[in-house]
Amino acid sequence: MPGLIGRSFRLYRDDLAPLLNKVGAVEKRPQWREALHYGVFLYILLTMSEIELELKDDAQPSVVNDPELEIMLKAGLHFGYSRSKRHPKMKPYIFGQRNGVEVFDLEKVRDNLKDALAFIAELSGQGKNMILVGTKVAARGSIEKAARDLGLPYVSNRWIGGTLTNFNMIRKRIDYFENLKEDKKSGALEEKYTKKEVLRLSEKIIKLEVIFGGVASLKKLPDALFIVDPEEEITAVREARRLSIPIIGLASNDNNPDEVTYLIPGNDSSRASINFIIERVSEAWQKGKANII
């Protein structure tokens, strides 16, 4: 039970509390704001408790006796959206429905994940490159940390149209950004421009860092993309497909599985489930780099 309470609290804290704070800002009475937060947390706890009990009792008996599937269950990887949001082609990956929420078949999730990780390890072992993409709030932290640890390019804010399909032009903008940074670091900006112009260019560097900072190391088109929620990053998906660049995607039941090369069906909205998948991706990349495929 303590683990369930912890998972419920993290879901509430990371994914719902920020939204409730915005809604609650309109309400002037503190007791009503507190009641709103408490009520939502209690609902999450009761819902997750009921779903997990049903899953363990009669939904997927193999989960109880399989440590790997148990970890996936604890990460909340099995949660999808409501049936009304489900893409028809995701039906084979759905085990059932609990309290209006569709539940993924974790055995199929594991099989797909295994194939995706094998491909990622192969890429790394061949010295190839991959962009990590995840602009959802729940994905940004994990994407950025993994990219830094692995030395990979990433996009955690807005995907800039043309990043792949107009790469040469994007690369020129990145070069301009890097030259500005170098000039500021060396003091060349102060030598070339007035104080007002230096201030303007310094502000521009900050803006360009947000836009291009994650892909500054990208000297050529990537060999693959790893994407959290391909439906959310549809521009990146379309560009990659147009150039026949493989896509590995963590995708919930609202996604079209045909849009990605390697589908990882599962919860793409929770920090816990996203962290779980990205940690596995990182491990696969490191193993491949060490030629332990």
TrEMBL record:
Q: Which Pfam families match?
A: Ribosomal_S2 (PF00318)
| PANTHER family xref list | 30S RIBOSOMAL PROTEIN S2 PROKARYOTIC AND ORGANELLAR, SMALL RIBOSOMAL SUBUNIT PROTEIN US2M
Gene that this sequence comes from: rpsB
Q: Does the record carry Transport as a key word?
A: no
Q: Which NCBIfam families match?
A: rpsB_bact
UniProt organism field: Candidatus Niyogibacteria bacterium CG10_big_fil_rev_8_21_14_0_10_42_19
Q: Which CDD domains match?
A: RPS2
Q: Please report the name of this protein according to its UniProt entry.
A: Small ribosomal subunit protein uS2
- What are the GO MF terms of this UniProt record? structural constituent of ribosome
Cell wall biogenesis/degradation: present as a keyword of the record?
A: no
**Signal peptide (UniProt feature, chain positions):** none
GO biological process terms, alphabetically, are: translation
Which HAMAP family does this UniProt record tie to the protein? Ribosomal_uS2_B
Q: Which UniProt keywords apply?
A: Ribonucleoprotein, Ribosomal protein
Cellular component GO terms held in the UniProt record:
small ribosomal subunit
Q: Which family does it belong to?
A: Belongs to the universal ribosomal protein uS2 family.
| InterPro entries hit by this protein | Ribosomal_uS2 (IPR001865), Ribosomal_uS2_bac/mit/plastid (IPR005706), Ribosomal_uS2_CS (IPR018130), Ribosomal_uS2_flav_dom_sf (IPR023591)
